[in-house]
Amino acid sequence: MAPPATFHRLFIANRGEVAVRIAIACDALGITPVFGVSEADADAAYLDGREMVRLGPGRAALSYLDPVRVVQAARQSGCSALHPGWGFLAENPGFAALCESHGVTFVGPPAHVMHLMGKKTPAKQAMRAAGLQLIPGSDGVLADAEQARAIADEIGYPVLIKAESGGGGRGMRIARGPDEVAAAYADAQAEARAAFGDPRVYMERLIEGGRHVEIQVMADRYGQAVHLGERDCTVQRNHQKLIEESPSPVLGEEIRARTLAAAVEATQRIGYVGAGTMEFLLDAEGVLRFMEMNTRLQVEHCVSEMRSGVDLVREQLRVAAGHPLSLRQDEIELRGHAIECRINAEDPADGFRPAPGTITRWQSPDARDGQVRVDTHVSTGYRIPPHYDSLICKVIAGGPDRDAAADRMLRALGELVCEGVPTTVPMHQAILASDDFRHHRYDTRTIPGWPLRA
């Protein structure tokens, strides 16, 4: 179904592989994408022949993350809609409201829903009402360090003190005993204030050795919602995911079915619209516990797309334009297994040191009849700026089962050529080839097959 006449130009408020991915979906729907770019990106090859608006200097804080400048650029370029990608602006309710107040359709959930889910304690209350199990912790924001100590004594140590408006691993501190609570509380508050402008914190019991599982949901403005299965994102370092896969290799069918159904119900209960991700921890007792909801697509949405055949960005654009979901739950068939590796311009043997520089030779692996996919914005001669995240591509591989998908990924990584800068490819190859990965003997604290700890 073609988008309404008022939705022919879309402003892309992001960069790199995110911007390229959104533009591909725009092209499929006949929507003209307009790229917002910083001066550091303006000469990138992926922008050749595309409409773009310069947002400002290379430093991200003065360009891609300036809400007023971004909305002004969208309006000045004649765009009636804006896609924030899957970065910070995508979860900013103030930015969503700013778009709407200027007559620009925000591709994402309503601002009030983003606000609800962005505040962790009311989000948990909504999820509990839908039947999801939660991690034991405080019922709301902590009043002071004394209350934090009392709750920690009650739920048991270790505990994790977390920013109410947090994300990305910031504003988090661990207390392993009563004598550590006051300092952890003060440090978490300070980091939360600096990172998010909100010093409020709450508490959860720390689940060590757990598995990180998330559920992809999609909803329209007519109350319809579906899931596209779950993803396992346990292989990570410092709360940053390295490898993602779907389905999770450790979930039983009963807990999978029950939690997927509850996730859809929760999505409908809160009036969600668009793509969203519910994040869980699987504890040592086999209980899948809700942590938070990210009100956007995740970087790893591609593994859900490969298993389902659903283009989630295209579905986002259709829903934002006022169309109902194109598929019912019983029409979504999840096939086989899919794995994604995030390839960064970093040196994993040197503490994951970022490596900006020029790619002197680039070659993507063979697509193998659609079972290998590469999402990227780089090419031979691309200059990696020092200002941004070091992600240069995502490689996604599918297969009839987990071992087949891992083997196909190893072949794809062996074919990928990126000369001129170090990358994390050797680390990914070591992980995928390891017995610990193949037999899923790892948790969020370890990187299977690699000597560095997360």
Written overview of the protein:
By secondary structure, the chain is α+β, with helices and mostly antiparallel strands. It folds into three domains: 9-107, 3-Layer(aba) Sandwich (Rossmann fold), CATH 3.40.50; 136-205, ATP-grasp fold, A domain (Dna Ligase, domain 1, 2-Layer Sandwich); 211-438, ATP-grasp fold, B domain (D-amino Acid Aminotransferase, Chain A, domain 1, 2-Layer Sandwich), CATH 3.30.470.20. The chain is 31% helix and 28% strand. The chain has helices at residues 16-29, 67-76, 93-101, 111-118, 120-129, 145-155, 181-196, 253-269, 301-308, 312-320, 402-415, 425-433, 435-438; strands at residues 9-12, 32-38, 51-56, 81-83, 105-106, 133-134, 159-167, 170-175, 201-205, 211-219, 225-237, 240-246, 274-282, 288-294, 337-344, 346-347, 353-354, 357-358, 361-363, 372-376, 383-384, 391-399, 417-419. Strands 6-14-13-10-11-12-15-22-20 form a nine-stranded mixed β-sheet. Strands 3-2-1-4-5 form a five-stranded parallel β-sheet. α3 packs antiparallel against α4, α6 packs across α7 (181-196) and α11 packs antiparallel against α12. The N and C termini lie far apart (45 Å). The model has no long low-confidence stretch (mean pLDDT 92).
How much helix, percentage-wise, in residues?
25-40%
Q: How much strand content do the residues show?
A: 25-35%
Number of domains: 3
| Architecture per CATH nomenclature, i.e. the level-2 architecture of the largest domain | 2-Layer Sandwich
Number of strands: 23
Counting H and I runs of at least 4 residues, what is the number of helices? 13
Shape: globular
Structural class: alpha+beta
- CATH superfamily of the largest domain, called what? ATP-grasp fold, B domain
| Sequence stretches where pLDDT stays below 50 over 5 or more residues | none
The end-to-end distance, rounded to whole angstroms, is 45 Å
**What Rg do the Cα atoms give?**
21 Å
The main sheet comes to: 9 strands, mixed
What is the name of the CATH class of the largest domain? Alpha Beta
What fold name stands as the CATH topology of the largest domain? D-amino Acid Aminotransferase, Chain A, domain 1
Give average pLDDT, whole number: 92
Strand order of the largest sheet: 6-14-13-10-11-12-15-22-20
